[in-house]
Amino acid sequence: MDAIPPDHFLALSRLDGLLGSSESVYDTSTLAAHDFDVDNRTGFMPPQAPPSRLQTEWEAWELALDHAIAEGLQLGEKPGITEAEMSRSESWRKGVRELPVIPISGMIRSETHLRRAHLVLAWIMHFYIHSLPPRVPVVVPAPITIPLFQICTQLQLPPVLTYADTVLYNWTLKTPSSRPTPALDNLQSHTLFTGTNDEQIFYLTSARMELRGVEALELMRATMDEAFVGDDIAMRRITTFLGRLATVIDDLRTLLATVRDGCDPTAFYTAIRPWFRGADSDPNKRTWAFEGLDSDPSWTYPSELSGPSAGQSSLIHALDMFLGVAEFSHAPGLTGASPTKTDTTQKSPFLERMQLYMPRHHRNFLNHLAANPRPLRAIVAGAEDAKLLGAYNSAVGALKRLRDYHITIVTSYIIQPARRAAAMQAEAEGLATEEPLRGTGGTELAKFLKAVRDRTAAAIIES
Predict the structure, then answer these.
(1) Binding residues for heme b, per the UniProt record (predicted)?
(2) What is the pTM of this model?
């Protein structure tokens, strides 16, 4: 981090006075350091707009993505899809299969270019798979498989579209600005499957929440600094920080509500969401085959392939860990096993599994936060301080309200449209279906969201 706020220096000076300069202390100053790729202005999003194009050497990938968007490729499962639309899709897929296998050696030293390459290849792959007719086997061609797996090895990411590809690294400014922080109303998403405003608003809602969450990250860091001092002044400051954190979380809920202003639930469910699906949530239970996977003996077939999900937001994970909500992560309903996972990996809680889809520096940030030897919840529980307890419970209550509203949004945008679609299909086919609705991360959606909400409520400390 380039600049450290005055309060941070004050906390460190008080630590020096208590411990002496020879004592080592837990370094909370790195909570927003460049080591974790967390910026003091933009949080988990990059401080400048991500590159919109790779260098000439990889232009063929960019052109393939451009072509998919220009052709307006349609979902293979689209009702009433025309022969012309299917022909355009197959012509584009043929062009992808005929691409050369382009080496990635020239970008290995550039994290920024690797991220862009992951984004471009993952979008191409999803266009390729989801434009296929629904009963056609999925075989990702070698010109995509080989460089994508090479890039994933470098980035320690799975070969599938992620939240980072659709939100964190998929934005630009509407108009150039010299502001150190992007204005929430000056963002636009760079790449879209449908080209619709509905899809744009869906991504931007999350991006704006990420930017508003920057203050929450700073409040976490300031709180951790004060916790290491532990005197009465520190407890009063932590109380103030937690009160402010509750306000920030309520602001996140307000921003989440803005998705309703431009993203229609039916359009989202029928035309946008299907592009996100990973193999874990393929309605036809198809296995994704990767041509060229055997070209490197170190590669193995992924144990899971979940699509982008709000569960991959490092900001929400950080709030859970900081407030001690993560301690309740093994509650019933939070395992979210996917159908392609082995017996040993099925036991991992869903939210832990989603961390595998985060940029690796952000995973390290969360691990650093989780390793804090003085957890906030334990401090509050042992302090016998009514104001501190009230402030903590207020912050946890705000997080529960955010999750309550998230359930409302998911009900409107996914659960209700899914029930209508299932009822129409059952009526048309004379069948009944009891198949549980799964999220793009492979979970039983309603059960999972309610379990997360209940877990959050359980973190409130009784006075």
Answers:
(1) 406
(2) 0.87
Q: Give the residue numbers spanning the domain of 167.
A: 56-204+265-295
What string of pLDDT tens digits covers the 463 residues of the chain?
Answer: 333 333 332 332 333 333 333 333 334 444 545 578 999 999 999 999 999 999 999 999 999 999 999 999 999 999 999 999 999 999 999 999 999 999 999 998 999 999 999 999 999 999 999 999 999 999 999 999 999 999 999 999 999 999 999 999 999 999 998 888 899 999 999 999 999 999 999 999 999 999 999 999 999 999 999 999 999 999 999 999 999 999 999 999 999 999 999 999 999 999 999 999 999 989 899 999 999 999 999 999 998 899 999 999 999 999 999 999 976 654 443 433 333 333 333 334 777 889 999 999 999 999 999 888 899 999 999 999 999 999 999 999 999 999 999 999 999 999 999 888 888 877 777 665 555 665 554 456 778 788 888 889 989 998 7
The reply to whether 190 sits in an annotated binding site is: no
How many domains are contained in the chain?
Answer: 2
Phi, psi of 140 (to 5 degrees): -75, 125
Lookup result for tokens 């307000």: 254
**Domain match, 396 and 438 both:** yes
DSSP result, 144-199: HHHHHHHHHHHHT--SS--HIIIIITSEEESS----SS--GGGEEES--SS--HHH
Q: Are residues 36 and 152 in the same domain?
A: no
8 A C-beta contact, residue 208 and residue 184: yes
Q: Are residues 226 and 163 in the same domain?
A: no
Indicate whether 225 and 318 sit together in one domain. yes
Residues 177 and 191 placed together within one structural domain of the fold: yes
Give SS3 for 272: helix
